[in-house]
Amino acid sequence: MADGRYDVVVIGGGPGGYVAAIRAAQLGLSVACVEKRGALGGTCLNVGCIPSKALLQSSHHYEMAGEGLARHGVKVAGIDLDLPAMMARKDEVVHGLTRGIEGLFKKNKVDYLVGSGSLKSADTVEVTPVDGGEPKTLHAENVVIATGSDVVRLPGVDIDEDRIVSSTGALALGAVPKHLVVIGGGYIGLEMGTVWRRLGANVTVVEFLDQVLAGMDGDVSKQMLRVLKKQGLNFRLGTKVTGAERTDDGVRLSLEPVNGGDGETLEADVVLVSVGRRPYTDGLGLDELGVKRDNRGFITVDREYQTNVAGVFAIGDVIGGKMLAHKAEEEGVAVAELIAGQSGHVNYEAVPGVVYTWPEVASVGRTEEQLKEEGIEYRVGRFPFTANARARCNDDTEGFVKILADAATDRLLGAHIIGPEAGDLIQELVVAMEFGGSAEDVARSSHGHPGLSEAVKEAALAVAGRAIHI
């Protein structure tokens, strides 16, 4: 609006922020969105989910052309890597999607301001242009903080985005490193390690814990470790990094066993630091306004995403929980609907997580370890992709589907998949859990043959001990 007064001002144009802005506008509210990056979509679209998936897809094609197609009777000779072309395609994907969000803002009449937003009061946001121009003042009935997260820094390992990089730098390397060391065995570390391993790098993953994908179901974590080792990744589990020194041609890392023992050094061309993310709240004026945060820096909110300051809301990574783009999007919709007087809601039990390696890993709900810890009686149904006809046709038989159901009611409690297209297959189980469905509901549903989804049906049948094809 020309007078700078809005029903809603959103600070942050990432998945949570831009979705909140669009949904609020759909509900008839006047909305402005403030984003300092100069490109909408946040970390996910610009330097996270989207560019990494573009590189995962391109590197998968490269590896298939060099090795995987021969089993299908397709012989390819003289494979060359054009890394600049691969990077250009990645950038093209990102640029197209960011421009698409700008188009959605115009369509929904959301005012888009490029600059850093900070709270001067509960209803006043100051926007400082990134080019150093004159600040603008916006007045709003409601302010939504959706500023996302930043990489966690590791003491003694200074990120320079040259030799020691964050995920941002790992997405823009100018050459394939001979030896890439990834610090952290979570989603981001394994995905980026996979990209560069496919393109020819020797990759070593150094993980503090004694497992990869911490928080995932134990069976999935163990299988994934075996698979990635078979693909050529090296792992140093139960190991901590205590320091990093730049050398003439790379980085020298200092390592120590977590449980004690002699230290050692590890040489690398490039080091990727991927040990988690922290809420981004710098320069927002939260302390001056008295907005409460927890001991880890996450903004605390109530069930309606409102902070302790009336009229100031927060969503996405900045409030913690699962730090996932789609979780932030759901919260963006919910907070807009709540501000508009509707009944927005997010079912956190039915928010999936996906790792886009190959095979993919996908999970929703509780793990078997969590159910044991909570003392919940449950039944398990498993089905391997080696027994799935479509997986055999595709030559993608690694992995399994695992379904956990309440022993008394058969209600779905969790589902975990490692295998081809796991990120898409999990959605059937997400929907079933959203509606309080049972393993029997999934088992009684017809699944097209031959299809990968039949493995989901068979796992559901296996909960009751009646899988057909194993």
Instruction: State the oligomer.
Output: single chain
Structural class by secondary-structure content:
alpha/beta
- Quote the average pLDDT: 96
Please report the number of helical segments. 14
**What is the total tally of β strands?**
22
Lay out the secondary structure:
Layout: E1 5-11, H1 15-26, E2 31-35, H2 42-47, H3 49-66, H4 83-107, E3 111-114, E4 116-121, E5 124-128, E6 136-145, E7 149-151, E8 164-165, H5 167-170, E9 179-183, H6 187-198, E10 202-206, H7 218-231, E11 234-236, E12 239-247, E13 250-257, E14 264-268, E15 270-273, E16 277-279, H8 286-289, E17 312-314, H9 325-339, E18 353-355, E19 360-365, H10 368-374, E20 378-384, H11 389-394, E21 400-406, E22 412-419, H12 422-434, H13 439-443, H14 454-463
Helix pairs in contact: 1-9, 3-4, 3-6
